[in-house]
Amino acid sequence: MLIQTVMIALTSKLMKNDKELQMQIQTNRDDHRIAWLAALAITIHLLESVIPSPVPGLKPGLANIITIIVLCRFGISIAVWVNLLRVIVGSLILGTFLSPTFILSLSGAISSLLVLALASWISKHSFVHFSAMGYSLLAAMAHITGQFVIAYLLLIPHPAMWKLFPVLLSFAVLLGTVNGIISQNILKRIL
Amino acid sequence: MTLADRLLYLSTLIALPFVYLYFWQPVQNARYADIHVEGHHQKRISLNKNQVLHVHGNQGDSIIEINNGKIRFKDSPCTSKRCVLSGWLQHSGEFAACLPNRISIALLNHADTNRYDSINF
Q1: CB B91 within 8 A of CB B27
Q2: Could you tell me if residue B39 is left (phi over 0), alpha (psi between -120 and 50 degrees) or otherwise beta?
Q3: What mean pLDDT is reported for chain A?
Q4: Which residues of A touch B (CB under 8 A)?
Q5: Could you tell me if the ipTM is greater than 0.85?
Q6: A159 chain-B contacts, CB cut-off 8 A
Q7: How many CB atoms lie within 10 A of CB B2?
Q8: In terms of CA atoms, which chain B residue is nearest residue A158?
Q9: How far apart are CA A119 and CA A123, in angstroms?
Q10: Which of A40, A54, B15, B80 has the fewest CB atoms within 10 Å, i.e. the most exposed one?
């Protein structure tokens, strides 16, 4: 969708034809949904970035509540869009785009989305059904694990870094549970 | 909460202590030591072989001793002798330096290079 949009914008810029310049980008209901929800997630992401953290790498991850809700209501593909847009636009606004913070944020988002995709596929195609609680816990744990792997490979290739992993994983379980409860309550109210 | 959620929580809470056990197990003994002189990599030595090295630094020769997988500054021409007081090193990630003589020892577990100890932005 995004690539298509950019391509249309580029071609209409390049062509001098008035008709081509008048061309409107076709959007569907999902595009609007993605835009609204991503805007909401970005706002939460920005508000959250001013909360000081006692341990480096520890964040409540409140923006992920949006991801979980979107996953439960609209499915994985919209959740992927919303989450990736949140990471990219959030970093552009905060000025961390392509910095190590962004790389860690993106790797956390990608790994949690991969796990969520797997979990939602399992929920659809088997008798195992996860709810917002399970999704949130899985996403939080995948997020921190992905970040640690990338941080170890790219930023701090020192074995001592893994000493912090169990502590942050425990916080991920705790915060994933809190976010799961919040998502569940929001889902109950909007349904 | 569905049944799958409950099972997921149960397995997570059971697995969590094992994560602590796995990642907080005692530090491993180092197998190599990197010696840097004036910020440049001088040599990598195995800790398996007992030997005494004389490394030429800024102020003179530092004497580095390797014995049974452990390494130390035996003597150095500096005045404070902080490097000597660092004592025996044997765990990977440990570090001793004689700043006046500009010689440092860093212990490694694997032969592959640790390019950075840490980066901060």
Answers
A1: yes
A2: left
A3: 88
A4: 99-101, 123, 128-131, 133-134, 137-138, 141, 155-160, 162-163, 165-166, 169-170, 173
A5: no
A6: 92-93, 109
A7: 15
A8: B117
A9: 6
A10: A54
pLDDT in tens, B85-94: 989 998 877 8
| Inter-residue contact B24 to B65 (CB < 8 Å) | no
Mean pLDDT of chain B: 86
- Scanning every residue of chain B, which has its alpha carbon at the shortest distance from the alpha carbon of A160? B93
Q: Measured between CB atoms, does B4 come within 8 Å of chain A?
A: yes
Query: Does residue B106 carry a pLDDT above 80?
Result: yes
| pLDDT value at B12 more than 70 | yes
A118-156 pLDDT tens trace = 999 999 998 889 999 999 999 999 999 999 999 999 988
CA dist., res. B78 & res. A107, Å (int): 47
The residue length of chain A stands at 191
> Rounded distance, CA A16 to CA A20, Å?
7
Sheet bearing B51-56, strands edge to edge: B51-56, B61-67, B70-75
What the block records as the tokens of A131 is 């709810």
Residue type present at position A182: I
| A89 pLDDT tier (thresholds 50, 70, 90) | very high
What token pair was written down for A22?
A: 């008048």
